[in-house]
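Pipeline run #58 for the internal structure catalog. This entry was flagged by the ingest filter as a single-chain record with no existing model, so it goes straight to prediction. Upstream metadata was stripped on purpose; only the residue string is passed forward. Reviewer on rotation: M.T. Logging verbosity set to normal.
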Amino acid sequence: MNYDDLTFFLAALSEKGLSFHSRGGVPPGAPLRQKFNDLFYKPHAHQQLEMICLLQGSLALRINGHWRECPRRAVQVFVPGAVHGEHYLDPGAGYRMLWATVLPAALLFHVTEHTPLTGYSTSKQRLAIAPPMCPQLWKTSRAPDFARDLRLRAKFHYLLMECVEYTLSDQAPRGMRPADFHEQIVEQIKHYIREYYWEDISLARMAGIVHYSPGHLNAVFRRSEKMPLHRYINEVRLLQARQLLQGGRLLVKQAAAAVGFKDPLYFSRIFARRFGIRPAAIRPARRRRKQWPAAPPPRRPQASLQVISTQKRSMGVKR
């Protein structure tokens, strides 16, 4: 993975644009008659958007159960939920393919390839870029109608080109060290957890997003943050739950579910361990102050009611 690959990616975006693949959709093109078994990536889907661009060779793509030949210099976009996999088309030629993953504040790039001698492999050198347009690119890809709205797709295409062009023009080509990528990976994962802590976040899901094995990702995260990934997830959720409980509007089980805990008993146990107080002890104190105000509401004097009723009777006599 190098800046030449990124330049190739930008040229493909400019020349042939984007081909979008949604959940359940049938990809365009003629079906392939060959049968493929030993896929490098087994058919899978993600909750975040991914893109591929064939750099060299020939490649077969499985998209929602349909096999198609991947066109070169054309960027394929897999909308969240689209099932996809890959396989070499010519065992004697192999291929190189660029992957791009959209995150809340960055774009991650890596290369997969196949050669007759070494078989399938993933590039050791990877690239993470964080131009200022990335948050808007992420929000556009997460829009509810993104899979169908042509204007949102056009906006995404424009922002994606801006991100890559900004990176290529702002930074001179330079070597990429694994440590730089690891640091960026950790920051992006932390950012994702802080933004979407209530979702079903797990080590396996985060590893799938960045294309790491769960064990490798946890080791990288632990070296950087001095704690395993699951503990960081719990820490973010517990802090958010404490704020919700202090608001006095949610029950303990409601607060637990709101921040992503499925088991209220487990939530109560680790909450008490973290803060030294049971979560149930926070809300009732605020509720009692609301039920017993400092002073009772003022009452209207009874005499005024008698005067009003007397006036009504006297008005009735005159009529």
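catalog note: The first helix runs from residue 3 to 16.
catalog note: Residues 175-179, 286-319 have pLDDT under 50 and may be disordered.
status: ready for reviewer M.T.
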